[in-house]
Amino acid sequence: MTLRHAIFPVAGLGTRFLPATKALPKEMLPVVDKPLVQYAVEEAYAAGVREMIFVTSRHKRAIEDHFDRTFELEDALERSHKAELLAIVRAVKPDDMECVFVRQAQALGLGHAVLCGRHLVGDNPFAVLLPDDLMIGSPPVLAQMAEQFAERQASIVAVQEVPAEHTRRYGIVGGRAVGERLVDIERIVEKPAPDVAPSRLGVAGRYVLTPRVFDEIAAQPRGVGGEIQLTDGIAGLLRHEKVFAYRYQGRRYDCGSKEGFLQANVELALEHPELGAEFRSYLRGLTL
Ligand code: UTP
Asked: What's the mean pLDDT in 32-38?
């Protein structure tokens, strides 16, 4: 089974970024010079995914436009011989990449958003990427997970160690270590209090899932916060199949929060080939 499909749930309200997200989708906020959603799409493409499925809502038109051709712009760049910019614009959607948009009419939760992509994924394994978790890894984090999936032929969930006082922010997994980076999951709980959390391994926004999870999500009653949780669907999947947690190699920025978003901008600007050196000396000159 190879990984051809990815679901990008981008239907959330993005309330933590108001007023910026009143008319602009959170996923279109740029980190340095690229919107968050493009980082996630590039990561999926690097893992071999070619069918990108965006679960959107009202006010998310900018995402569709971003992955569409822009003939006037391309024409203008071509005529003014701006070949480098033209290449950047064209690379947003390579020719062998398919983009499909499906609506989630009501924000009923991440599990529900994933279920909205079911008819497009069919009976295939698929990835889920939350674009507000910006992942930097080499190889890219989803490619690391696709390799684990190819080896194990079982669902793989990205995890990282989180501080005890943060367990309430994550899905937390418990299980048996298999080698250095894998955990054979026995339990997964959404946003537990620290004293009942099965471990400190928190789920980050990357998943490779087998299609059976759709049945399990559909069978779930509403979970934490009255939402249909993906975590509960994965807990259901555990009753039938193995699911592994994978400690990814790389860094994660929680760009759904202002702190994480600012950190990503600063750190990626410092690494930027054109901006890095000057930006570093600018930061050094600040009296903090
Ligand atoms: P968040 O919990 O970050 O919610 O969702 P949000 O609405 O985007 O942001 P805040 O908390 O109000 O600021 C995690 C991911 O799940 C998607 C979001 O778009 C985001 O990528 N999501 C969440 C949906 O697509 N549909 C939902 O019903 C809920």
From this structure: 97
Specify burial of residue 180 (Cβ count, 10 A radius: 0-12, 13-18, 19+): exposed
| Nearest ligand 1 atom, CA 132 | 21
Residues whose beta carbon lies within 6 Å of some atom of ligand 1: 9-16, 26, 55, 104, 107-110, 112-113, 130-132, 256
Overall number of domains in the chain: 2
User: Are 33 and 78 within one domain?
Assistant: yes
Separation between Cα atoms, residue 3 and residue 83, nearest integer Å: 33
Q: 51 and 147 share a domain? A: yes
Give the pTM.
Answer: 0.95
Q: Which domain holds residue 97?
A: 5-256
CA of 148 to the centre of ligand 1 (A): 27
For 132-162, give the DSSP string.
TEEEE-SS-HHHHHHHHHHHH-SEEEEEEE-
DSSP β-bridge partners for residue 6: 52, 127
Model pLDDT for residues 130-153, shown as the tens digit of each residue = 999 999 999 999 999 999 999 999
Are both 211 and 281 inside the same structural domain?
A: no
Residue 14 CA to ligand 1 center (angstroms) comes to: 6
Strands 98-103 and 51-56: parallel
Could you please report the per-residue DSSP string of 57-101?
-TT-HHHHHHTS--HHHHHHHHHTT-HHHHHHHHTTS-TT-EEEE
User: Are 160 and 283 contained in the same domain?
Assistant: no
